[in-house]
C-alpha cells in the first residue's frame, strides 16, 4: 500500500499512518513519525506505561479506557514540550526511545533502580514512598482515576514504587470436575499366563478449545458433589454412572459388557489438575474387559469373556483402541499422564501398581486370588536378583479367573524397576453399586 498510494514513502502524519496503512497501530505510527521524521508525537508501550504511572503516581486499573487515555495525553504533553530545533530533527524520536530504555533498564517492574533514575526528583511515586507526599486531601482527592492503595502496615507510607502501576486483578479460576474411565480390554492368553493383546480406549478432543486435539480416556463432566454430605460410595457410584453414559456413545456395549465393567470397576480416587483458568478435579475409575477364554464361545462373546467392543459410527468424537505402544506415544496432556500414573504407577507402565492410591486390596472390583485358580500360583511375590535392585509387585488379581498384576512376558515376569509415588488423593474403599 505504501508503494501504490504513497509512492514508496510512508506518511509523516501519525494519524494518516494509523488510518491508511494496514497493520500500523497508534504505537507504531508514533514510533515511525517521531523516529523517522522527528514529529513530536507520543508513544506508549509497556515500559513507558509503567514509567508514567510511577512518575505521576497513578494508581488506576491498567487497561481501563480512562487510564489509557490519560497516559497517552500525558505522554503527548511531555513530548510536546520539546524544543523545536532544526539542527536536531530526531529529538522527538530520541525522547521516545529514551523513555522506553529508561522503563526497561531502570524503572523495571521488579527492583527498580530509583537511585540511578534521572527522573527521581520529579517522580511522585518516589516522593510518596519517601514520605514527602502531600496530604490525602490535597493529592488523592484530586485524582478521579486513582483507586485506593492497599497498605501493608499501619503507616501511611507506600512500601515501594512497585505499587505502581496498579496490579491487574486476576480472574478467579472456575471449579470443574470430571469423571475419567480408564477402560482396558485384555485379549486371549492372559488367563493362561501369556502376554496376550491389551488395548485401552482413547477419545480425541475437539480441534478447538481446551487441550485441542489431544487424546484422553473417556472423560465426562460431573456435578461437584458436596464431600461433607455425600459418602464415598455415593460419589463413586455417580462418577461411574456418568462414565458409563459417556462410554455408550463411543463403543457398542452389550448388557454383559456393561455388567462386567461395573463389576470390575475400581474407584481409584480423585486428583487435582490446575489449568491457567480452571481448577480441575479428576475422579478416576479403572475397569477391565477380558476376551473370551477357550472354554467360552469366542464367536459371540458369550460365557465368561468379551469381544473387543466396536467403535460406533455415530460417536460424536474420534475414538480408538490403542495398544501399549500406541498409548505410550499418543499425543496426550499432562493431566492424562497424572491419571494414568494413579492407575498404573507411572506413565509408560502398564501393570496396575500396589503403590499409590491403588494399593488397598479392598478397592471395588479387587478380589484375592483363589487357591488353585488358573494363571499361575506361587508365593505371590516375584524374586529379585542381587544385581538388579528393583521393586516388585504383590501378585494380586483383578478377577476370579486369575489375571495378575504382574504380567508374564515370554515366561518371565515383568519387574517394575521404578514406581513413582504420586500425591495421595482422597480415596475410598467402598464398593460401587450401580442400578443397571
TrEMBL record:
One of its GO terms (molecular function) is 8-oxo-7,8-dihydroguanine DNA N-glycosylase activity. It is an enzyme of class 3 (hydrolase). Residues 369-411 are annotated as: Disordered. It catalyses: Hydrolyzes free adenine bases from 7,8-dihydro-8-oxoguanine:adenine mismatched double-stranded DNA, leaving an apurinic site. Its cofactor is [4Fe-4S] cluster. It comes from the Eukaryota. GO terms for cellular component: nucleus. Coiled coil: none annotated. Its EC number is 3.2.2.31. The keyword Secreted does not apply. Keywords: 4Fe-4S, DNA damage, DNA repair, Glycosidase, Hydrolase, Iron, Iron-sulfur, Metal-binding. SMART domains: FES. It holds the Pfam family NUDIX_4. Residues 198-341 form the Adenine DNA glycosylase C-terminal domain. Belongs to the Nth/MutY family. This is Adenine DNA glycosylase. The lineage of its organism: Eukaryota, Fungi, Dikarya, Basidiomycota, Agaricomycotina.
